[in-house]
């Protein structure tokens, strides 16, 4: 049976702003467990692209701000999983990409139930007007430029998301690499659920 798990990952910036995906994340991202990868751009190198293909051969990518070597990548894409339509974009083509109303307009334009977006390097997930919005953050913890309203130089917590899609809903698992006061790294996992409302007024 094909895996229902969808990896949502982005803002890697290897090798420009980060050396690699953290080893603790790579241990989790093993081939054969994930059915599809949605990459929100800013790969910036071919080796990372090849690595993502080993995780799941079904790799979908959109163009990020810094993907200058890949001009033919689309700015957004839509995939269907059961009854859910999932759109994804890095978001640099959107004015004020971190504004809820702008993201809602993009979800409406793409006619999607779930919109995954990147660019801020910080995890976020929320529901608005029966649509679910997910920003997986930066899988490498790459620094921000400060261009999109982010605070330049602020420490970024490396993160990525896995979506387990089932019928009209999904469970989002958020993986974050946190450091304690002694600098010891551990993976923190949070779970967020979304169910599409059908019908109603």
Helices and strands, with pairings:
Elements: E1 5-9, H1 23-28, E2 36-39, H2 46-55, E3 59-61, E4 76-81, E5 84-89, H3 100-110, E6 114-117, E7 123-128, E8 131-136, E9 159-166, E10 169-179, E11 185-195
Parallel strand pairs: 1-2, 2-3, 5-6, 6-8
Antiparallel strand pairs: 1-9, 4-5, 7-8, 9-10, 10-11
Can you give keywords for this protein?
3 helices; single chain; mainly beta; 201 residues; 6-stranded mixed sheet; 11 strands; 5-stranded mixed sheet
Written overview of the protein:
It contains three helices and eleven strands; from the N terminus they run E-H-E-H-E-E-E-H-E-E-E-E-E-E. The chain is mainly β. The strands form two sheets. It has a six-stranded mixed beta sheet, covered by helices on one side. The protein has a five-stranded mixed beta sheet with strand order 4-5-6-8-7, covered by helices on one side. Strand 7 and strand 8 (about 130-135) form a beta hairpin. The protein starts with a strand and ends in a 6-residue tail after the last strand. The relative contact order is 0.18.
Alpha-carbon distance between the two ends: 37 Å
Give the helices and strands as they follow along the chain.
Answer: EHEHEEEHEEEEEE
Share in helix: 10-25%
E-strand count: 11
Please describe the biggest sheet, giving its number of strands, its sense, and whether it closes into a barrel.
6 strands, mixed
How many whole angstroms does the radius of gyration measure? 16 Å
């Amino acid at each position: 049976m094909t895996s229902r798990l969808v990896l949502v990952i982005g803002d890697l910036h290897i090798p420009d702003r980060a050396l690699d995906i953290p080893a603790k994340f790579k241990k989790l991202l093993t081939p054969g467990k994930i059915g599809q990868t949605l990459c929100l751009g800013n790969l910036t190198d071919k080796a990372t692209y090849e690595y993502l293909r080993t995780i799941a051969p079904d790799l979908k990518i959109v163009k990020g701000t810094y993907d200058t070597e890949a001009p033919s990548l689309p700015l957004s894409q839509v995939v269907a999983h059961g009854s859910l339509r999932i759109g994804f974009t890095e978001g640099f083509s959107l004015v004020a990409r971190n504004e809820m109303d702008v993201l809602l307009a993009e979800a409406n334009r793409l006619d999607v139930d779930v919109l995954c977006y990147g660019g801020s390097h910080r995890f976020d997930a929320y529901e608005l007007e029966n649509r679910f919005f997910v920003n997986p953050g930066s899988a490498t913890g790459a620094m921000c430029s400060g261009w999109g309203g982010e605070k330049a130089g602020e420490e970024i917590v490396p993160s990525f998301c896995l979506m387990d899609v089932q019928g009209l809903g999904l469970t989002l698992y958020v993986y974050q690499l946190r450091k304690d006061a002694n600098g010891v790294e551990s993976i923190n996992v949070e779970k967020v659920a979304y169910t599409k409302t059908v019908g109603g007024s």
